Amino acid sequence: MRKKRQNYTPQEKVVILKRHLIDRVPVSDLCDEYHLQPTVFYRWQKDFFENGAVALEKSSSRLKKAEEKRIHQLEAKIQTKNEVLSELMEEHIQLKKDLGEL
After folding, report:
1. What single string gives the DSSP state of each residue in 27-76?
2. Is residue 35 domain-shared with residue 72, that is, in the same domain?
3. Structure confidence by residue, pLDDT tens digits, 14-51
4. Which has fewest Cβ within 10 Å: 3, 21, 33, 88?
5. Coil, strand or helix at 5
6. How remote is the C-alpha of 3 from its chain's centroid?
7. CA distances from 67 to 42, 74, 85, 96 (A)
8. Are residues 46 and 65 in the same domain?
9. How many domains, in total, are found in the chain?
10. What is the domain range of residue 102?
11. pLDDT computed for residue 64 by the predictor
């Protein structure tokens, strides 16, 4: 009978890789502990190093989205102020006309 396949979350994979890279735990010990094939471990490591730049870019894209949101909010605020100023100027001109100053 076959063993049930264990699915690891990305966070768990990073923890396992970190133990090898930082704590210097041998791959054989990690594979025994987590019931992994060494090829699986090395595939995770390869993916981790190849996609590391993408992980770092995501944080900058989050910053870009936040910045775009702030710009949109500020533009909406300026638009509202312009509308209010326009209404006030119309009222001011109308009052001057009513008083005969224009």
Report:
1. HHHHHHHHT--HHHHHHHHHHHHHSHHHHHHHHHHHHHHHHHHHHHHHHH
2. no
3. 999 999 999 999 999 999 999 999 999 999 999 999 88
4. 3
5. coil
6. 37
7. 38, 11, 27, 43
8. no
9. 2
10. 58-102
11. 83
Residues 51-65: pLDDT tens digits? Answer: 877 766 666 677 788
41/15 same-domain check: yes
Tokens, residue 6: 């264990």
Q: Does residue 84 lie in a domain region?
A: yes
Residue type, 57: E
In a domain, 22, yes or no: yes
Domain assignment present for residue 1? The answer is no
pLDDT given for residue 13 in this prediction? 93
The amino acid at 89: M
pTM, two decimal places: 0.53
Q: Are 44 and 11 spatial neighbours (Cβ–Cβ below 8 Å)?
A: no
